[in-house]
Write a structure and sequence with these properties.
Shape: globular
CATH topology of the largest domain: Rossmann fold
Number of strands: 22
Strand order of the largest sheet: 2-3-1-4-5-6
Order of helices and strands: EHHHEEHEHEHEHEEEEEEEEEEEEEEEE
Number of domains: 3
CATH class of the largest domain: Alpha Beta
Number of helices: 7
Distance between the termini: 43 Å
Structural class: alpha+beta
Radius of gyration: 23 Å
Strand content: 25-35%
Length: about 450
């Protein structure tokens, strides 16, 4: 993990959450290191350490991937095996970047890193082009509803005919992303050399066939919806994390509900509904460590004090009454299976949605998505590691979930092993696959 402090969500500089994805050896760590280096987001002693390590490896230029591959195992193998969050900034924007692994067996880390991203940089090696892992990552990113995508065609300095190769890769990738549901305005292809910095911080004279922005120029200017958690604007969603009852002499009757605004906003005097009970009340006060607020926007962690003494506990959701989701006990979902042990019908697991964890039973396996053919195989016997499929789920306690296509935060969940506590699947409420699949079921 980076030791830098995450930029404030409420600072004057607009924040962009992004992630990297790509296959092994496409140069993700080098590109992230280049972004940190070119934005002057690393200390002088870190640069010195990287320079010394590069000399020890017999390299003529600093290996910027060493700025981000911090784990010893990663340094020794030259790979990234964990999601690492990096923080950097330019005068125009602040960034939180999730650097994810490229190996197939770590697809679950890519799902985790990209789940909150507003933009993903997907790398390909110019010498290899769009490969199987590229298509897999693109399908996963489409299912996750990532709004913006950049294809960084890396290592263009290593090929003899870069203009022709870049055009071919861009055309193939453009066809893929259109099939998966992105518009042309949401996708940009950029030829880069992460090693030498071509088209990273500034446009390079080495790529006269490309007349678009550099990577950082694009990251600074790409439109970002302030509430990019979903494709639709919805009212308040406030999963209760903790009930605060200090019972001190100073605050003998205080009762507040702590959590983070997952969607919409909340203001003093707003009417709200508590789910799943359906009880309505009024927001009397919004408390923070820095004092009271009139209004709390999405992403803000606050404590709500309500006008009435309502029975609320961790896992409940406080929502806007006009468009509150109907608590559901049985629903269809799309899952990315992340465990070695396959998923079969009838599996008894734990489901974590927001702050609520409840017992769950997997019903039918409706179909399995083949991200290479962009088609579905009906009624599979199981879902294996990294498979994407549609299932039915029944939970012991109703959850206040939105369709994932409406809101990414309130429409997602995790399936957990009740014995060991390991995460088994990332789930999306609703028929998410219908937005990306083509071809007929087999």
């Amino acid at each position: 993990m980076s030791e830098a402090i995450e930029p404030s969500l409420h600072s004057d500089t607009q924040l962009l959450r992004l992630a990297t994805a790509g296959s092994v050896d496409d140069g993700k760590s080098t590109l992230v290191g280049r972004l940190l280096y070119d934005t002057k987001s690393v200390l002088a002693d870190q640069i010195d350490a990287v320079t010394r390590a590069s000399v020890d490896k017999g390299l003529a230029t600093p290996d910027l991937s060493l700025l981000v591959d911090g784990l010893r195992a990663e340094r020794e193998q030259g790979i990234t095996i964990d999601v690492a969050y990096r923080y950097f900034a330019t005068p125009k924007r602040s960034f939180v970047l999730a650097d994810t692994p490229g190996h197939v067996q770590y697809t679950r880390n890519t799902v985790s890193g990209a789940s909150t991203a507003q933009l993903v940089i997907l790398l390909v090696d110019a010498r290899k082009g769009v490969i199987e892992q590229t298509r897999r990552h693109a399908a996963v990113l489409a299912l996750l509803g990532v709004p913006k995508l950049v294809l960084a065609v890396n290592k263009v300095d290593l090929i003899d005919n870069p203009a022709e190769v870049f055009a071919e890769i861009s055309a193939e990738f453009g066809e893929l992303t259109r099939t998966l549901g992105w518009s042309e305005d949401d996708v940009l292809e950029i030829p880069v050399s992460a090693k030498f910095g071509d088209n990273v911080a500034s446009r390079s004279d080495n790529t006269p066939y490309y007349d678009g922005p550099s990577l950082i120029e694009h990251l600074e200017s790409v439109p970002v919806d302030a509430d990019s958690a979903g494709r639709h604007s919805i009212g308040l969603r406030f999963p209760v994390q903790y009930v605060i009852r200090p019972r001190t002499a100073e605050h003998p009757d205080y009762r507040g509900y702590a959590g983070q605004v997952a969607a919409g906003s909340v203001s003093q005097g707003d009417e709200v509904v508590v789910l799943p009970s359906g009880v309505r009340t009024i927001v009397e006060r919004i408390d923070t460590a820095d004092g009271e607020l009139e209004t709390a926007q999405v992403g803000r962690s606050v404590t709500l004090v309500l006008a009435d003494d309502v029975d609320i506990s961790r896992g409940d959701t406080i929502a806007a009454p006009d468009d509150a989701p109907e608590p559901i006990a049985e629903f269809d979902a799309t899952v990315c299976w992340l465990a070695e042990k396959p998923l079969r019908p009838g599996a008894r697991l734990l489901l974590k949605h927001g702050t609520r964890t409840t017992q769950a039973i997997v019903g039918a396996l409706v179909d399995r998505f083949d991200e290479q053919r962009l088609a579905s195989d009906a009624s599979p016997e199981s879902l294996e590691l990294n498979d994407i499929g549609r299932i039915t789920v029944r939970v012991a306690e109703p959850i206040a979930a939105d369709d994932y296509a409406v809101n990414r935060h309130t429409g997602s969940f995790l399936l957990i092993d009740p014995a060991g506590g390991n995460t088994l699947a990332a789930g999306l409420v609703g028929d998410v696959l219908s937005a990306v699949e083509v071809g007929e079921k087999v």
